[in-house]
Specification:
The protein is built from eight helices and 14 strands. By secondary structure, the protein is an alpha/beta fold. The model has no long low-confidence stretch (mean pLDDT 97). It binds zinc ion (3 copies). InterPro entries: Metallo-B-lactamas (IPR001279), RibonucZ/Hydroxyglut_hydro (IPR036866).
């Protein structure tokens, strides 16, 4: 399985519009963070988790020519705003795009993209096929996804384990029971917003503590704010098995 981090930034991205802090002014390409998303290439299938506002730019950058399905973690705009751009795949692949998400998440997509679901097949609108999921494992094009329930302050969000890879974003709580589903993963991607605690995201220290408990072989942090600090400097403070993710990072699991 080949994984590509399409975006590793928090909801505003990095740099932040109008900000002149040292992170936002950094010339290090690893300090340029689009909104979070990840691409999985597994058994000949191409699957993306979340389609944020930078979706178009991300799939062009990584030359993702085919897309078999989109899976959503939750309904926040930084994870869904780019949905309209799946039209390109509708045209090139001549099929509807399967979307996987919890009922609540799919309902929110219906509200935010009402023209897609109006029943009026206006030429050129995105064509989708909805697949409601629960906390039970499900298959996407024959690939097994195991949901990991996490909390984003009060909002229930799903992380996913696919084989030995686990992807969790927008969390600041995971139960002991759900941790068991993650254990044994070789690589974990986990959100870490900033140095200071936050109401709905793990801070850097909270993410490090959780990863030290989960003990994957490698871990990458994502959903990063400009308040975390510069990539180069923050990495020096981390245990060896934990690295900061950056946009375009690829690895095999
Ligand atoms: Zn988010
Ligand atoms: Zn800044
Ligand atoms: Zn969120």
């Amino acid at each position: 399985m080949k994984i590509t981090l399409l975006g590793t930034g928090t909801s505003q991205g990095v740099p932040v519009i109008g900000c002149s802090c040292e992170v936002c002014r950094s010339v290090d390409y690893r300090d340029k963070r689009l909104r979070v998303s990840v691409h999985l290439q597994v058994d000949g299938k191409s699957i993306i988790i979340d389609s944020g506002p930078d979706f178009r730019q991300q799939v062009l950058r990584e030359r993702i020519r085919t897309l078999d399905a989109l899976v959503f973690t939750h309904e926040h705009k930084d994870h869904t705003a780019g949905l309209d751009d799946i039209r390109a795949y509708n045209f090139s692949q001549h099929k509807d795009m399967p979307l996987y998400g919890e009922e609540r998440v799919l309902e929110q997509l219906k509200r935010e993209f009402s023209y897609i679901f109006s029943g009026i097949q206006y030429p050129g609108i995105p064509r989708v096929e909805l697949h409601p999921i629960t906390e039970e494992p499900f298959d996407v094009e024959g690939i097994r996804f195991t949901p990991i329930r996490v909390k984003h302050y009060k909002l229930p969000v799903l992380g996913y384990r696919v084989g030995d890879f686990t992807y969790i974003t927008d969390a600041n709580y995971i139960s002991e029971e759900e941790k068991e589903k993650v254990r044994g993963s070789k690589v974990v991607v986990l959100n870490a917003l900033r140095q200071e605690p936050h109401i709905s995201h793990f801070s850097l220290q909270e993410a490090v503590d959780l990863l030290e408990d989960l003990q994957p072989e490698r871990a990458y942090l994502t959903h990063i704010s400009h308040l975390l600090g510069q990539h180069r400097e923050v990495e020096l403070t981390l245990p060896d098995f934990i690295r900061l993710g950056y946009d375009g990072l690829q690895f095999e699991v």
